[in-house]
Amino acid sequence: MKLSVQTFITLDGVMQAPGGSDEDDEGGFDLGGWQGPLMDEETGEAIATWYRRATALLLGRRTYDIFSSYWPDAPEETQPFKSLVNDPPKYVASHTEPEFTWDDCHWIGPDAAAGVRELKARPGGEILVPGSSDLVQTLLDADLVDELQLVTYPVVLGKGRRIFETGLNPSAWELVESSPKPGGAVASVYRFSGRPEFRDM
């Protein structure tokens, strides 16, 4: 199976708490909700298109807790995302097995990289990882991400968890899709292409 990471980031790469002020204040982060003022209909449709490609979702534990507390009983006006999030099977990376309260959720075991390798070995389909910053670091460092689906917003926060933290393996990515949106965001898709090359200029 193909594995894609889909997330919202700032110009300085921060992906923490885009959706709300109380979404995630870990590390003293107090700038949550930075995405809302820059959201527009075209960006929403681009995100929905990525979700429609997915045959399964893979969530980190924090993202599972956030999603499972909202999406099962989300109002109908949140469609199509209500169905796009609720309907596929959901796999959860966590050091301990959660007590699932959401339909069709499955624990991949305490070793996230090993569990994801097993999922990726299955034939066909696409696994989508929305957000889940800690899990994304693990997947990137293990070269398990095939595609990055990024919505980059024209804002700099100067703090918060970033999609590419210090210490990751160097990697190279091919830009396969890029589209600016009316609110100033750019929706881009990058495909993993191995290790970067280096040369003197």
List the helices and strands and how they pair.
Elements: E1 2-10, H1 41-53, E2 56-60, H2 61-68, H3 81-86, E3 90-93, E4 105-107, H4 112-120, E5 126-130, H5 133-141, E6 147-153, E7 172-180, E8 186-194
Parallel strand pairs: 1-5, 1-6, 2-3, 2-5, 3-4
Antiparallel strand pairs: 6-8, 7-8
N-to-C SSE string, H for helix and E for strand: EHEHHEEHEHEEE
CATH class: Alpha Beta
**Residue share in helix:** 10-25%
Integer-rounded radius of gyration: 16 Å
CATH architecture: 3-Layer(aba) Sandwich
The total of helices stands at 5
Average pLDDT score: 95
Q: Characterize the largest beta sheet: strand count, sense, and whether it forms a barrel.
A: 8 strands, mixed
| Beta strand count | 8
- How widely separated are the two ends? 39 Å
Strand-residue proportion: 25-35%
Number of separate domains? 1
Shape, please? globular
CATH fourth-tier homologous superfamily:
Dihydrofolate Reductase, subunit A
Taking pLDDT < 50 over at least 5 consecutive residues as the criterion, the unreliable ranges are none
